[in-house]
Amino acid sequence: MAEAEQLQAEALGMIGESPPMVELIRQLRRVAPTQATVLILGESGTGKELVAAAIHRLSERVSLPFVTVDCTNIPGSLMESELFGHEAGAFTDARTSKQGVIEVAHGGTCFLDEISLLPLELQAKLLRVLETQRFRRLGAT
To answer: Residue 2: how many CA atoms within 13 Å on its side-chain side?
Structure first.
């Protein structure tokens, strides 16, 4: 890896000069300028969030929010509200309206860590959001 490339990789929080690391950084540079949805695969602890943050920092969205949701920390029953938000009265204890992380990240990056652990019904709803680029808060008309 050239010295300039190594400095940029380190600025992204990545170190290493192995061929796979060089290829990863090349791929990050290619995907960052696009509006593509990116699926980052890897075992827990391999740096998926670091890769997502690097894509965000290399993109035109860098000045917009980077929002992370750890899908293992929020019960499935609350995750729909966490992702899409809700209107006041949408369910018991929903006293006020709340933005979901998708709305908070609008125009920026929303990183959903461990998305495979979400209930399949919610994964299908997320797929619909990715396909249509639209969503509705819980309880909204």
So the answer is: 4
